Amino acid sequence: MDDDVGKATPELVDLAIRAASEARTVDLTHISQRITAGPRWPDVWPGEHYKLLAGIVKVLQPRTAVEIGTEKGLSALSLLKYAPPDARLVTFDLIPWKQCPGHVLRDSDFADGRLIQHLDDLSQSIGFGKHRALIESADLIFVDAAKDGAQEWRFLHYFAQCRFREPPLIVFDDIRVWNMLAVWRSIDRPKLDLTSFGHWSGTGLVRWT
Does domain 10-207 have CATH number 3.40.50.150? Predict the structure, then answer.
């Protein structure tokens, strides 16, 4: 940490402490019960990040949240669980959620309009530009993308070009995966590694000031 370019601010530390405390008591049973085979990941904490995501939402109370990487929908449901009644969560992926093996989402989750999925590649300039206004209005952004050593660099580049309405909290998943180490280290913004309270493969918080 002595030579890391991004340092945690008192505000970010306070937010992290409050979110971790909330994660101890949040109830995601309704989500884990949708898993028909294998471990019920939302019940695992620490070590998995679903309860921490829910805790962050309880503390932050975002009106607009963006998720990059829908996959099975576990994170989306965790983020939505404690969001304000008038909040919206827009989740992005390259394939419809119904085509993802083991998905837990249902049509009813989208019925009230609080949860929306878009099929666009935000790591490409055309896709990001199409949704730039939405992203700039976001209070919370959860980045759970490819970890391929390329996508996340592009996200950082695009985020740096945004004129955010207010500095959003950006949560990066898997920051301790090998391809993500240099990405995480490069972020010159207030940031905090919260892995011990989140995902075993890494959870990082960035206040994009």
Answer: yes
